Amino acid sequence: MSSRPQTEDILNASEIIRLTSEKPVSLIPLWEFLLAFFFAVSIALLFYFGYFNKIENATIDFRFKQRGELPRNQDIALIGITEECLNELGTWPWPRSMHGKLLSILKSEGAKVAAFDIMFNDNPLLGEADDVEFANQIRNFGRVVLPQVVLNRTVLDPETFEMAEKSIVERPTETLLAAKPHEGFIDLDHKILNPDGVMRKLLLHKPAEGLTSYIFGLSAAAAYLGVTPVVESFGMRLGDRLLPFFDCHEPEAGHRVKSYLVNYAGGYRHFDEISYADTINRKFRPGFFRNRLVLIGTR
Prior knowledge:
Blueprint: H1 13-21, H2 30-48, H3 53-67, E1 76-81, H4 83-89, H5 96-108, E2 113-116, H6 128-141, E3 144-156, E4 163-170, H7 174-177, E5 182-185, E6 201-202, E7 205-208, E8 211-214, H8 216-225, E9 230-231, E10 235-238, E11 241-244, E12 246-250, E13 255-261, E14 272-275, H9 276-280, E15 293-298
Parallel strand pairs: 1-14, 1-15, 2-3, 2-15, 3-5
Antiparallel strand pairs: 3-4, 6-13, 7-8, 9-10, 10-11, 12-13
């Protein structure tokens, strides 16, 4: 007795052709995929061109608040010029010899660096001899940092007779520069990098008059460490430490800018402080300035 062939589980030719010609059902409809892709690209471009800076700044501020203050710094001391100092030592500006006396005291106390956040670009009121006295003390101290200001001004080009923007550096007087101090610019950008007025980003260096100027704090740190800052592709090299650049398109500038994000220490009493008058009158404990970077300026 012959049995019937079992053909129920065998595909015939017509069924094979039909199955191979059918398109598989898409897991995600095409329109949803294109919409998601367009949305992702749009968000990425907005971030790339800096249009979410306000949101990013808010998250930075929030993270600093959550982290809290950094430990108190023991390598830096502040000498503040206060109203009480003006009442005791006289009206401003003080003679340059007064700052020379301050340097003499700091050197005798073992301070490592003295950084003046005070402009000395004008001629002294008491004459050249006053500048000479200060310059002699700068030479004697060794590691002194004086400020400069880098300004962008529109000037007349003497060759083309057209108005052009040029970077001009306001520096200390020639007598003080002859003492070979370190220099650093103190003007901070708040229109392009920090349009809301909160200083989160800094330019670590600026080209001006054919030279590279470094920000005041960086120059002071370099003097303290005895190294020279080196500009690299991804940051500023200071000895064995790399200060990374924050490379971002700044809408106010219209192009990408390599800045540095400030690591906010928190609070107003992060460093030991003393007034200028108390320092001149030696009203401080022994060893207060020893091996420290001393910043001098107004509060």
